[in-house]
Specification:
elongated, single chain, two-stranded antiparallel sheet, mainly alpha, 20 helices
């Protein structure tokens, strides 16, 4: 707090507004001034640019600190997503274990592996050892170095060394051995996205799928009027209507399974441009196998490292999958919202759970808030997909440099869809009830039941019956008898909604 006050005082003395970058750098200077009086709170770290003071209770080093100063954008809400950091921990552990096979000092390799476990667990992320934001270098280099520095210093601590000394564990020479930011960051993206798809989104969608399927069975005998173009159409059952939603969720799960094989292909081993410079023969395959072992997912080494570094097509494909799922959920959410409209002046065919008051001025009003939440999520996912598409299309020459944007948007979409599916199921779908009286009333008033007469009296006469009934405000039966096209007995025999639900 002291260094922020110093910064503000200096800013006031200068008599003007500071840019975010100027403020951040000034704040760091103030921090350094304050820290010089409390040397126990900081330590000196170095990189190729020189020395920087960093907080003594943080494991990161100079390169992380420079990124904090150079990209003061958005604050804590814009931090690199936790799944990416955990995935970096997985690949660093895998690389250390494989490098040990290739001759890396066992004591160093084991310390790196143990330090990586603290990253994988998420503990160090929650303790703010990974402060960098998404909006940094497009290759993710600073986040890769952030992870290298944290693991290096944690490993040094485990071995009884001095933080910041880079001895006996160096962030580049040891933690980053046989790697480059250009292959580690895309590898982390694929690990994180695969895990989130398999462990979070698929289970969330399955919960929603099963709840909708249960409703389809529950509603299988409730005959209602269908609607096309939002206008009255022929009958179907409420169960048949819900079965369409079930199929959409079935296809959603199938689509995820269809994209996963490309997500399981890892760039690690391509190093800077895809050639594998500074690695050993077999390193790529061994690390992919080790990552598969650690995650229990079928990761493999990408067949072409040039594609794996230069393009992010697999993530664009995932984003397209998520966009399609969002489209499905938008349709389902809106249908349920409109079918539940009312309670007296809307369609009112469904009765939705009443979860909270809906108005600050209209007493007793209750709104379809779960539908609103779900459809807003879908809109956000669609927007995220646009950004991912732009980012994926900007892979220039041997490297795509929109990776943090792509990774954060895909992961955010997965999380939103997974959480949204679960809450929509628990707080809406499970409690939906059919308003049988209202459904029967609407169906019996529909003019489109006249469609059942087509095979018996022809389209033109049937249309005349419907138009006359609509114009005169009478029933189909009264109109048909008045026009003399059929008898009362014929009408009762031919116009039966329960016989209009499928082919004969």
């Amino acid at each position: 707090m002291a260094f922020r006050l110093v910064t503000q005082q200096v800013a006031r003395r200068r008599g003007g507004l500071l840019t975010a970058l100027q403020f951040a750098k000034l704040e760091h200077c103030a921090f350094s001034v304050s820290a010089s009086r409390m040397t126990e709170d900081v330590r000196i770290e170095t990189d190729t640019f020189g020395e920087l003071k960093v907080p003594a209770d943080r494991y990161y080093g100079a390169q992380t600190m420079r990124s904090v100063l150079n990209f003061p954008i958005g604050g804590p809400t814009e931090r690199m997503p936790e799944p990416i950091i955990k995935a970096m921990g997985v690949l660093k552990k895998a690389a250390a274990l494989v490098n040990k096979e290739y001759g890396l000092d066992g004591r160093v390799a084991d310390a790196i592996s143990q330090a990586a476990d603290d990253v994988i667990s998420g503990r160090l992320y929650q303790e703010n050892h990974f402060p960098l934001v998404i909006w940094q270098t497009g290759s993710g280099t600073q986040t890769n170095m952030n992870v290298n520095e944290v693991i290096s210093n944690r490993a040094i601590e485990l071995l009884g060394g001095k933080l910041g000394s880079k001895d006996p564990v160096h962030p580049n020479d040891h933690v980053n051995k046989s790697q480059s930011s250009n292959d580690t960051f895309p590898t982390a993206i694929h690990i994180a996205v695969a895990r989130e798809l398999v462990e979070n989104l698929k289970p969330g969608l399955k919960i929603l799928h099963d709840a909708l399927e249960a409703k389809a069975r529950e509603f299988k005998d409730i005959i209602k009027i269908g609607r096309t173009h939002t206008m009255d159409a022929v009958p179907l059952t409420l169960g048949q209507e819900f079965s369409g939603y079930v199929q959409q969720l079935t296809f959603a799960l199938d689509r995820i399974d269809a994209v996963l094989p490309r997500v399981y292909m890892l760039a690690l081993g391509g190093t800077a441009v895809g050639t594998g410079l500074n690695t050993r023969v077999g390193f790529a395959e061994k690390t992919a196998a080790k990552i598969a072992e650690l995650t229990k997912l079928p990761f493999v080494s990408a067949p072409n490292k040039f594609e794996a570094l230069a393009a992010r097509d697999a993530m664009v494909e995932v984003s397209g999958c998520l966009n399609t799922i969002a489209t499905s959920l938008m349709k389902i959410g809106n249908d349920i919202r409109f079918l539940g409209s009312g309670p007296r002046c809307g369609l009112g065919e469904l009765m939705l759970p009443e979860n909270e008051p809906g108005s600050s001025i209209m007493p007793g009003k209750v709104n379809p808030t779960q539908c609103e939440s779900l459809t807003m999520i879908c809109a956000q996912v669609m927007g995220n997909s646009v950004a991912v598409t732009v980012g994926g299309s900007n892979g220039h020459f041997e490297l795509n440099v929109f990776k943090p944007l792509i990774a954060s948007n895909v992961l955010r979409s997965i999380r939103l869809l997974a959480d949204g599916s679960r809450t929509f199921t628990a707080n809406c779908v499970n409690g939906i009830q059919a308003n049988r009286d209202r459904i029967a009333q609407i169906m019996n008033e529909s003019l489109m039941l006249v469609t059942a007469l087509n095979p018996h009296i022809g389209y033109d006469k049937a249309a005349k019956i419907a138009k006359t009934a609509h114009k005169e405000g009478t029933t189909l039966k009264a109109s048909a008898l008045k026009l003399g096209y059929l008898t009362e007995q014929q009408f009762a025999e031919w116009v039966r909604p329960e016989n209009m639900l499928g082919p004969k």
